[in-house]
Amino acid sequence: MGAIICCIGKPSKEKGLDGKLESKIAEIRRNKFGQSRLKSVESIVMLFPMLKERLKTLRGMFEQYDEDSNGSIEPNELKRFLEHLQLHFQEQEIKNLFHYCDIDGSKGIQFNEFIVLLCLIHLLTEPLSSDK
User: CB of 55 within 8 A of CB of 62?
Assistant: First the structure.
């Protein structure tokens, strides 16, 4: 994640992955800071059963795309995953996305890093408010 944060505040000359992430993070800062989204402890605890089921679903999805069942998603598996989601990233964007999500540098995306990947995909595929 440090690689993402290092890009914040620097002007982006191209709208590659770094530029898209920079724009999304800037928009989130503008729109969501200052808005209290705190929930009560009780409401968070009530979500645990649902969270457990959703994590099981995500684990199944992870295992489906971990084609060689080695416990991590390699770059070629990531590319097929993105193609299945009908997301059209350029080759360099896929490499950057893989690099950002391989937090421990193991040359593979483990399940916890897969969750980070899904969050980044969500950020990247949600249109900017200025694009609406």
Answer: no
